[in-house]
Amino acid sequence: MSSAKTAAPIPQKQYYTVKLETMAPVELTFRVFAETPEQAIEAVSKFPLPPLSSVKPNLSRIRRIKAMVYKAGTSVCDLVKKYM
What we know:
By secondary structure, this protein is mostly beta strands.
C-alpha cells in the first residue's frame, strides 16, 4: 500500500460584481434658469434635474457603509460586509 496524497484542487479565479454602498461627498453641476440665486437653489432642491456634467467624487473623504459581492452576471449575493 502506498500512501499517495491527493493534491487539493487549485482555486480558480472568477469574475465578481461588487456593489459598494457609500456616503461620499460629490460635486454636481446644474444649469438652472431662474430670476434670483434663491430661486435657482429652490428649483434644484424641489425638482432635481440631471447634472450638467459627470459626478466628481472626493475619494479621499469617502465613507464605506456596506459592500455586496455577486458572481458576475448573476443576482445571487455571495457575501455582504458591513463597515459600520
